[in-house]
Design brief:
Layout: E1 2-5, H1 14-27, E2 32-36, H2 42-53, E3 60-62, H3 65-71, E4 77-81, H4 87-96, E5 99-104, H5 108-125, E6 132-140, H6 148-156, E7 163-164, E8 169-170, H7 173-181, H8 185-188, H9 193-205
Parallel strand pairs: 1-4, 1-5, 2-3, 2-4, 5-6, 6-7, 6-8
Helix pairs in contact: 1-2
Amino acid sequence: MLTVIGNLKGGTGKSTVAFNLALWGISNKRRVLAVDLDPQATLTDVIRVRDEEGYLPALDLSQSLDEAIKAAQEYDEVIVDVGPSDLGTMYAAILAADQVVIPVPPSQADVWSTHRFVKKIRELRGERSRPEIIGFINRADTHQAVRESDETFGALGMIEGLRAVRPRLGQRMAFRRSFSEGLSVHELEHRSKAANELDELAKAIFRKSRR
């Protein structure tokens, strides 16, 4: 399955999400290829850190969409990180994808941006059933008194053509710390809240993936 992690806005945490989902897949006995098509190359940087530190398992990396498409049959999951600064590459990846996953920070501005992104994806795919479009709350409020994450999730559920999944990733230091060290949150602290959140999100995203 080819999964694009994308957003029309920068700074939504998609590289962190792509990296953690890729390592979650490997830890669950799946063959995973990470593909970095973002000109900022953040995913490439963190995988390089992981390689330099000698962390195992190693994560296969490509920086070519054509290469990823050709290699897709060799992997259970191909996870593609794309950036809004190269819309042509982003749209090409979307057309090749089985699903597009959109990390959405909890704000009204991000809801508006997501709505425009979903509309564009639906225009690109035309009458095709794929890619499926999935949205989730990233960097969610961890304080129960703050309602913005719940309000954003409710707004996502109203966007036509989007499957909003309930599991969310909180605004947690564990995600920033693990990413800077080349580790997934599971590897950093297996029983942490961040690791549990990632596990629930991955199960929701990859529920139809082949094993």
